[in-house]
Structures are given as C-alpha cells and as structure tokens.
Amino acid sequence: xxxxxxxxxxxxxxxxxxxxASVFGTAFAEGSVQTSLGSTASGEPFNQYLYAYxxxxxxxxxxxxxxxxxxxxxxxxxxxxLCGAVDADPLRIEIYNPSGTLVQTFVPIAGKxxxxxxxxxxGPITTxxxxxxxxxxxxxxxxxxxxxxxxxxxxxxxxxITVTPNNSINPDPRLNSGRxxxxxxxxxxxxxxxxxxxxxxxxxVRVPGGRTGSEYIWKLDLNKxxxxxxxxxxxxxxxxxxxxxxxxEGTASAAPLHPIYLSYxxxxxxxxxxxxxxxxxxxEGDGGRTFxxxxxxxxxxxxxxxKFTGDVDGTYTITIDTNKDGVYGTGDRLLLGTSLAxxxxxxxxxxxxxxxxxxxxxxxxxELKVRLGEYHFVAYDVETSGGGDNNGLTVYRATSQTGTxxxxxxxxxxxxxxxxxxxxxxxxxxxSGTAAGTHTWGNFAAGGLGDTRYLDTYVYGLVxxxxxxxxxxxxxxxxxxxxxxxxxxxGVADGGETGIPSATLQLLNSSQAVxxxxxxxxxxxxxxLGIAAGTYTVRVISDSAVNGKxxxxxxxxxxxxxxxxxxxxxxNFGFVPSADLAIxxxxxxGSVNSGxxxxxxxxxxxxxxxxxxxxxxxxxxxxxxxxxxxxxxAVSGNTCTTAPTTAALQSAGGVTLPALATGAFYEFTVTAxxxxxxxxxxxxxxxxxxxxxxxxxxxxxxxxxxxxxxxxFSFPATFTRTxxxxxxxxxxxxxxxx
Length: 738
Hints:
The protein is mostly beta strands. 5% of the residues lie in helices and 39% in strands. Among the domains are: 180 residues, Jelly Rolls; 102 residues, Sandwich (Immunoglobulin-like), CATH 2.60.40; 132 residues, Immunoglobulins (Immunoglobulin-like, Sandwich).
C-alpha cells in the first residue's frame, strides 16, 4: 500500500472511530499514532520516540519542551499514557494549570499511567493516568524519563495524551482531537537516519494573522522525513539573525514560537482578508545622512537603517539586491524580522552582503515585503526529506483535518550554504505539493545537505511590497545646494524664487578632476553624497536646463567648497533667463503730409536663447504725432492676438507681452495723425525683458522712425512770371515772390 493510501485509510479510520465514540462521549487524543505515520520499521508501527521534557543535546537544540492540552470546559479530564525507552524506566508527570501553578505530580506505574512499550495502540487505553481539570485554558504537561541514561536514552517509545469529557471515558489514541500542542517537539527516529526511521507525519501550526481575531493554520506535511534525532519548531523568521530566511550551518540558532498541534486545532479562526498597508519606506544613515560609508572612517556612519510603518502586526523582509541582477532572491542579503502595527520599524543594515563582505560603493535597490501569518519550519540535522525526486516535505494552508488549499512554499539552501548541493526556489517559490513547492534533500545517509545543518522551509499569507534604495559611499560628508531662478538678482534663494529642475552639476577634486556628477531634482535641489574630507569645486555645466540663462551669483557658476566629515549646505547657484529681444518700427515711407495719418508696423522678435514671458513694449507720445489706434497684424505666426491700446503703449507701464519662445514675434500696428505743419517727426518704440531676465544685446531694444513733414498746399519758394506782348510794350516786368 503506498503512503498516500495509507494516510487516507488512517484518516477514514479516525472518522469512523470518532463517530462511534460520539455515542458514549468523545475522547480527544494525540500522541504516537499521529507522530509516527508511515512507519516502515519492522515490527514497530510507532517509530518516532518522544524525548523527555528536559532532554537537550548537540542534536536536540530546544530546551524544556512542555506539552499543552487545551481545556474547553472545566471538569474535562487529561488522560496520560506513557512507556519509556523500556518498560521498566522510571517516569514522572507534572501538570501546571493555565496560571502556571504546579497542580499535580505523578509517577506512572503499571496499571496507572504506564502502557507497554510494544503496545499497538489499536483501541481505548484502560490504564491511563487521569487528571480532572478545574478551569478552562491551556494546561502545561511536563513528561520526564528519569532512567539515569544518556540524553539519547531518555525518551518515550509510546505516549498518548487525551482529553475526555469525564473519568468514565477511556482515551482512544487513534482519534484526532486538536487539543494537544507544543511549541517544540523532539523525537528519536528509531535510532537511525535510514528509511526505517522516517515518518510521514503531519503537524498543524497556528500563526496569528496580524489583524484582530485572525489566524492562519498551516499543515506541515512530512514525507519520508528521517533525522535520527531532531526537533520540530515553528516561528515567524526561521533562524535567528543574521541567518533569518536562509538555511545555514549548525552554528546558527532558532527559537520556537508558534503552537504546533498534532492534529487540526479544535479552535481555529479565519485568516485575514486585507493585506498590509506600508508607508514611508526609506533608508537613513547616521546624523540624517541618506547613505552609509562602512569602508571609510571606522565607527562613523558604518551602518544605516531601513525604516517603514505598517498598519498591521506582521513579518517584514527587506531584500537588498546585492548582486545587482534585478531579482530579489537567491544570493541577496535578506533582513527578516517582525513589525508592529502603526509603529515605525527600524532595521539595521551594515552595508554587507549575505557572506558578510562590505559591498562596493554604489546604489543598491531594496524590496520591502510585509507578510501576514508567516511560518518557518527549521529542521536541524535531518539527513533526509523525501530521499528521491521532489517527494520531500511541503506545507499547505489547512481548513480542517483533511481539508487544505495550496500556498507558495519557499526555501533557500544556497545563499548561506554554497556548494553543499542545496537548492533554492526563490524568488517565486512553488505551489504546495508540486515539484517546485516540495522541499527535498538527502538519501537516508550521513554527510548530505541536512547533516548537522539547519534547513528552513517557509510560507506566508497576504503580502504587500514596496521598493526603495540604499547608497554606499566612500566618505561621510555631503555637499548640498540649489540651482534657482534669481529673479531679483541678489544671489540669495529668496522665497518664491523657483528652482531650476534637472540642472547638471559636477564635483571636481583639488586636481580639478571630475569625481561625481549629479542632476538637480524637480525643485532644483542637488546633493553630492558620501564625500571624503577635502577641498572641491562645484560647478553647473551648460545643458538644456540652464542654456539661455545667465548666472548671477556666483558668476561664473562655480564654487569652492571645503568639507570635513559633515554636511556642507547652502551652495546655491542663481540664474536669470537670457533673451535677445529685438524691436523694429517703420511706416514704410520717408515723408508724411501734415494733417494726414500714417501707420507704423512694430515687431518684437525673441532671438533667444531663452523663451521669455512678460516683456514690456512702450511707444511714448511723440511731438507732432497723435496716436489714434493700434491693431494686431494678420501675419502668420504672430503671437499678438489681443490688440494693445494706445493709452497703454504711451503709459509708464507700457504693454506686457505674452510668452515669446525663441524665434517667436509679436507684431502690431499703430496709426497716428501728423499734427506737425512742417519739419520732421520721429517716433521711438522700446522693448525690455521682464524682471528676472537679462538681454545680452541691448542695442536692438529700441527703434525709431523719422519722416519729413510736407503741406498739402505748398508752393516753390520763388518763381518768375513772363509778361505778355502787350505788357512788354508797356515796358513793365514783375517779379513775384511767394
């Protein structure tokens, strides 16, 4: 019969027995039957021997492992049946109430508390020790084997702990109860790590879901799991830092945390429905720095902190892409721990990779995940899981004793154990029970991957993620400042003066070699990070952000900055736009008639290099002329859409023009009546850039048109009239003058 069928058969047997027991009252049992599923040991159906409460060794890492019984009704009875390594072993039972008070000590004897070491556990036990509870809650049970032997000899070949409604019901070890649990279980696998010492047992782990009243129930499904001596623990981070989230050598450590039931818990809540919400994920160095410099001055800014806030209790993972492959997974540095709702979490990073080596100078992307219901199963010194191809342990989300749903299962046996033959399924993991989600290793022999090493397998529920980055530099100082529009040209970044975004700046060392280049942000602010002590030149280079602008203070746009190991702030660069505005004015004639009108065409052209908004045109009154009208011309491309008024043109404030891009023009006409009777008339128009801009060519900012004035009835200055014959005879000649 294959293993899967065997498991199903035992599950059906448990259901049938439970139905029969319900007629007389239910016994809630657990013990050797549940922990030894799949035993192939000849003549030994229960090949997983429970170590005593106080046994520790180089293989059993957890100290003091009490067993707990959930009592749901006062007066329920705890039934305990034990056999040591041999029938004659002296045993002791201690029971503590939910308040932690010792309420009973009992030494099992034949007929009361002891069962035979070869018991088949195939029916109700009539010789159990019975303790009647007085309150509800979790009772603690400590089981001792005091045979005086070595740690490896102080175990129980048979154990069963059953909760019954009263004294009259005998415990049936074949029933699953969901009442018995521990934060750590330790076993001897039939004194061997070969296949005869393996187990296919299932364990059910209760993990808080983060949100009020929620939890996850995870089913650890062991398959051909052979460890000789091993313990079963559950926590949220796996190994203790700095190995959290990895499999690692046996010098690491792990601490138990979550309850591990031998069957689906009798009381279980639903998982949460809302994922975590993360805010303000960032990285900070010492003293407000945004970088660290672990390779520079020892003891100064060597470590930084990732910081964030979540809205729920959970587990965080910060994966730093230390190998810069764009994948947050195998080979990267992982920081793993727990976070509290609405409390800022601060996580230290020393600038090192997973191997403990300080990383080169550079920018390192980091991914933060906040995960709910995270469960890690860390196996120590377990030689084999599966022993074949993809047939090892896996984890499901449990909904009942037999009901499950798939989840993603993860492990990384590579990053901390390079070259040991391990695998990693990061970053994606694999679905429960599939080849990608089945953690398999070993071949039932010593010297393999699991031998004297910790191997971590983990799952989690709802998750949210965000990205940030961390910077490693070779110095501790910063140089900061702003590139801005110095509207009033006073060399001070006054309130209301906007920054110039994306300006490019260079940092030059004392030899005038460029050592760093940065761009200003959208507000014009810039920062050179991680600068070593020394004297530097900071300069703004010509690029699209400042082309067409003229520096105010400093001019040219460069500064000498001396730094020590702190921030050198306020190194600002002021600029004003530069636009060559040219103006022309003509009426197209050289003379005008007194009393008539003449029309002038005025054009303002922006020759660049900057666009300009708010240029001012003035056309003051002129002697001998009376402006009567102004209008926009119909020339294609003209930016004049609303005609100026003659009053505005002649006023002290003039007319403010709309935006003029480089090459754009503003053209209009002014009609004037010639009031001068003679001589000439001159009319001058001017244009000026707005405040905060500069015009590199002032000579074309004004234009004058001059015309000769003539009268409509004018005559030549003199003329000669010739007399007629009659007049001649009279002997008279007249000279006429105008």
